[in-house]
Specification:
The chain starts with a strand and ends with a strand. The strands form two sheets. Strands 2, 4, 5, 6, 9, 10 and 11 form a seven-stranded mixed β-sheet that branches. A four-stranded antiparallel β-sheet has the order 1-3-8-7, with no helix packed on it. A hairpin with a 6-residue loop joins strand 5 (46-51) and strand 6. It is mostly beta strands and 127 residues long. It has one helix at 106-110, and strands at 3-7, 10-13, 18-25, 34-39, 46-51, 58-60, 68-73, 78-83, 92-99, 114-117, 121-126. It is 4% helix and 49% strand.
Length: 127
């Protein structure tokens, strides 16, 4: 059974930065694309960023492009989300997720082709 544990959330002022981490266990992490999604109060969950299983391809939502960077360390079974220039509208619970099958693309995962999810970490950006 794959387990994903997010960390790194918190309270930050607008314009600040945070780095989220998602540690995976129980599966062959390095063969799966990984992604981050978020859900704000009263809103649907939305895609944020995804990275291919090797890490060479990434894909971002337009709302975070140029501000967020997704990366992965397959030796540590961990995927990261570096968030810079944070805005109040970035406030949400952030979740990491795995692709549904191995060797997939970041683009496919962005479309919701996901399998396992973490419990989420809260990010709050104050104005």
């Amino acid at each position: 059974q794959v387990q994903l544990v997010e960390s790194g959330g918190g309270l930050v002022q607008a314009g600040g930065s945070l780095r989220l981490s998602c540690a995976a266990s129980g599966g062959t992490f390095r063969t799966y694309a990984m992604g981050w999604f978020r859900q704000a109060p009263g809103k649907e969950r939305e895609f944020v960023a995804a990275i291919s299983y090797i890490g060479g391809n990434t894909y971002y939502a337009d709302s975070v492009k140029g501000r967020f960077t997704i990366s992965r360390d397959n030796a540590k079974n961990t995927v990261y989300l570096q968030m810079n220039s944070l805005k109040p509208e970035d406030t949400a619970v952030y979740y990491c997720a795995t692709d549904r099958s191995p060797y997939g693309s970041a683009f496919r995962l962005a479309g919701g082709y996901t399998e396992y999810w973490g419990q989420g970490t809260q990010v709050t950006v104050s104005s």
